[in-house]
């Protein structure tokens, strides 16, 4: 397993040694009286014993050094061989945070700054989908209200049309629609308040999203809005770590796989009850390079940079989660391709 580069240890500068001071003695050596001659004799015996112990110590130390000198090259060789056989050893990515975990063995295959807290951007919508789908039935109809889009983009979901909840969730996730996120949060308000009386009125979906993060033990994750849009040039709409996102994805796939199934498609088209259709393209440009994709979500804002998280299978019933945070708009896709390829090699080699 490769880990992120840690900060270099600062070595303290060597201290200059104090100059030795030699003090000369000008007085004559003392004359021993007969009654004092036995003491020097005992002192000579004592010094002889000390000298013998010192010789034994140095002999033992020499043997120890010789042993260690012979074992270090072997240990270094083993470490070098292990690094050479690790498919992740040569992986270089732009992302500031990354995490790859094999869900079958619960083994971490790769990590880079896994616990650093970074803006999540639209990865936030995974938590929103969990919050909404927990209280609204998938076949329930939602009438699109009069609205403006949170990001100022053109309206793609016209007011007055009626869509099923599952279709709105699919469109919001696949097309990474901030408009859809806002509509879903409003649509689930009453049901969430009924299910969770302690939820904050008018912001029940946001409350539930943070409640989910708390219950999953996502210590570095919190949400400030339901879409992940930056709130200001210095304040993101949500924060989390690569490790936390991996846990969230694992939970989503294991408890609500039907909610996220369409995120593996390259495009989405939803149909209103009156027949009108709305289509969207998947924002994940790495889709063709990810075999066995089960679910995925992109994210990009000025503060977050490029984010991408996926859950894919490297073999039958062998799921793996991979996350990259704070890469670049295009770099996130290249980063993920490298991690997927290394994962396939590692699993094939039995690592």
Automatic annotation (TrEMBL):
The chain crosses the membrane at residues 46-68. Residues 7-23 have a biased composition (Low complexity). One of its GO terms (molecular function) is beta-lactamase activity. Keywords: Membrane, Transmembrane, Transmembrane helix. One of its GO terms (biological process) is beta-lactam antibiotic catabolic process. Residues 92-326 form the Peptidase S11 D-alanyl-D-alanine carboxypeptidase A N-terminal domain. InterPro entries: Beta-lactam/transpept-like (IPR012338), Beta-lactam_class-A (IPR000871), Peptidase_S11_N (IPR001967). Residues 1-26 are annotated as: Disordered. It comes from the Bacteria. The keyword Membrane applies. This is Peptidase S11 D-alanyl-D-alanine carboxypeptidase A N-terminal domain-containing protein. It comes from Candidatus Kaiserbacteria bacterium RIFCSPHIGHO2_01_FULL_54_36b.
């Amino acid at each position: 397993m490769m880990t992120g580069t840690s900060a270099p240890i600062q070595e303290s500068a060597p201290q200059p040694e104090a100059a030795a001071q030699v003090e000369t003695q000008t007085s004559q050596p003392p004359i021993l009286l007969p009654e004092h001659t036995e003491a020097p004799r005992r002192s000579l015996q004592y010094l002889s014993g000390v000298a013998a112990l010192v010789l034994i110590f140095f002999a033992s130390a020499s043997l120890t050094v010789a042993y260690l000198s012979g074992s270090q090259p072997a240990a270094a060789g083993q470490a070098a061989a292990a690094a050479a056989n690790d498919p992740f050893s040569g992986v270089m990515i732009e992302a500031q945070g990354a995490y790859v975990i094999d869900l079958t063995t619960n083994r971490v295959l790769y990590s880079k700054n896994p616990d650093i807290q970074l803006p999540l951007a639209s990865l936030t919508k995974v938590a929103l989908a969990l919050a909404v789908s927990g209280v609204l039935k998938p076949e329930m109809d939602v009438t699109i209200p009069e609205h403006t889009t949170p990001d100022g983009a053109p309206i793609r979901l016209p007011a007055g049309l009626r869509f099923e909840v599952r279709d709105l969730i699919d469109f919001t996730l696949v097309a990474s629609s901030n408009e859809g996120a806002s509509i879903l949060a409003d649509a689930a308000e009453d049901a969430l308040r009924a299910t969770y009386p302690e939820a904050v009125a008018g912001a029940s979906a946001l409350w539930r999203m943070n409640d989910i993060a708390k219950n999953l033990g996502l210590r570095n994750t919190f949400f400030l809005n339901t879409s992940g849009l930056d709130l200001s040039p210095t304040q993101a709409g949500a924060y989390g770590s690569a490790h936390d996102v991996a846990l969230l994805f694992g939970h989503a796939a294991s408890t609500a796989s039907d909610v996220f199934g369409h995120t593996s498609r390259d495009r989405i088209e939803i149909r209103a009850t009156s027949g009108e259709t709305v289509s969207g393209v998947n924002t994940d440009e790495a889709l063709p390079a990810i075999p066995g994709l089960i679910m995925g979500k992109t994210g990009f804002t000025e503060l977050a940079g490029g984010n991408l998280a996926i859950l894919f299978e490297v073999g039958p019933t062998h799921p793996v989660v991979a996350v990259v945070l704070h890469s670049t708009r295009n770099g996130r896709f290249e980063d993920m391709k490298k991690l997927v390829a290394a994962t396939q090699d590692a699993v094939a080699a039995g690592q």
